[in-house]
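hey can u check if this looks right to u? its 79 residues, i copy pasted from the old doc so theres a chance i mangled smth
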Amino acid sequence: MQMKEKLAELKAAVEARLSQLMENDAPQLLRDSMAYSLEAGGKRIRPAMNLMANELLGGDREEALDLDCAIEMIHTYSL
């Protein structure tokens, strides 16, 4: 698989997991604010690099996705 295709695959996985994480019991206004910030787009290079390292080391992708999404949330809200 070429790097561009791999990055697209990993970005899609991160985007899907972020969407799942935003489906929670928080008030609607807070969820809307979260969605506005997190779904504004981005390259998602940080989580993609971590997921590739995780894959090389034989880690669990689902666990890594949760960590990567947490890091993306912190990064997004720090901007």
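The mean pLDDT is 89.
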